[in-house]
Amino acid sequence: MTDITQDTQPEAPRRGLDHDRLRELAAAIPPGRWASYGDLAAALGGGAPLARRLNQALIKLGCEGAHRVLKGDLTAV
User: Fold this and answer.
1) From its phi and psi, is residue 14 left (phi > 0), alpha (psi between -120 and 50) or beta?
2) pTM, whole model, 2 decimals?
3) 17 contact partners, CB below 8 Å, separation of at least 6
């Protein structure tokens, strides 16, 4: 599993999803590695409710690296 929080600090929880930060996090996942929706949610300062929203956000935004994000059971959506 890739530690996408290694060089970053989670931001304070916000009402809306920080699309720019989500793009940065997804793009930071290196080739050959992966992260879970929970990893991304934690890096964004959220928990399980946010993780459940991220799949659609990644699709809608067309984030680079989105194909490297897996569900908690290590399967692709």
Assistant:
1) beta
2) 0.75
3) 44, 50, 53, 57
Give 9-25 pLDDT, tens digit per residue.
454 444 589 999 999 99
| Rounded Cα gap, residues 77 and 67, in angstroms | 9
Domain assignment present for residue 6? The answer is no
Structural domain including 59 reads 19-70
Asked if the structure places residue 42 within a domain, the reply is yes
Specify the length of the chain in residues: 77
Does 25 map to a domain?
yes
When divided into structural domains, the chain yields a total of 1
Segment holding 57, helix H or strand E:
helix 48-61
